[in-house]
Amino acid sequence: MLPPLRAANYIRGTAILDIVWLAAAETVESETLADICAAVSERGCNLICESTLVALDRIAAAIPAALDVQFLVDADPTDRLVALAAARRTRYGVLHDIARDDAMERIDRLQEEVARISRLLGDLAGQRGGLTGTLPGFASRGGEDLADYPGQVRAPARDFTAMPRSFVPEERTLDRQRAKAVRRMLRQRRMREQYFPADLFADPAWDMLLDLYAARLERQPVSVSSLCIAAAVPATTALRWIKTMTDAGLFVREDDPHDGRRIFIALAEGAYDALARYFEALEE
């Protein structure tokens, strides 16, 4: 247990460190949090980060996307055990020669980084055949090639500013009608909870897909905390699903162009296309 100001130096100075558990992340200053994240990244640790829902957007934006992090929001003991299990990694024996100088240590770290990048490039090359984690037949309309979607880090830039209603083209009118239908479907799903236990029909992945699809049609951004609320499950569970869907190439992170302390979650183009075809099929 260390105060945040001492954490980064301790992480960098520890020979073997598997997991860093950051409690009450919302109380840590932004500069200190950034330094801790940098140290975690340098040492190749996994991070468990506890935060409140109110501060979640700021914390999620401050932690680099490349960092392996397990988020906890108002977590119970079971959530903490699940996060700990997910953050575990296989321990390997490491020999530390006290006679080695700093230059040799830097060379070894450089070689490890090159090997890691090589493995990453190999994994990306192996994924170019299709959208990872999606069902067969997940293809775009009009023969559009989706081979590049797994590697994307953000959706194409979109203008979230609504046009005056009198100048909105027919396509925007259709988008508004489709968005209303999706919102109606979400309301109907929430109405079931008045008559049956909420966890009986819990399907956070589908709820989040619908919410992001409606927001895309409405040209509205969706924050991490807002998407957690739309999932209708505990925030920690929703965050695990967001990570799973992002790793599968269905969700992408987008920086808020007006506030660097916040990120948005959006549908990847392949997921958006599949949902559009799904609702077209429902309307036939």
Main traits of this protein?
284 residues, 10 helices, 49% helix, globular
Can you walk through the features of this model?
This protein is mostly helical and 284 residues long. Helix content is 49%, strand content 9%. It has ten helices and five strands; from the N terminus they run αβαβαβααααααββα. The chain has helices at 4-13, 30-43, 56-62, 77-87, 102-127, 170-191, 204-218, 224-230, 235-247, 269-283, and strands at residues 19-22, 46-51, 69-73, 251-255, 263-267. The strands form two sheets. Strands 1-2-3 form a three-stranded parallel β-sheet, sandwiched between helices. Mean pLDDT is 79; it is low at 129-143.
Strand arrangement in the largest pleated sheet: 1-2-3
**Structural class estimated from helices and strands:** mainly alpha
Number of helices: 10
Radius of gyration: 22 Å
Outline: globular
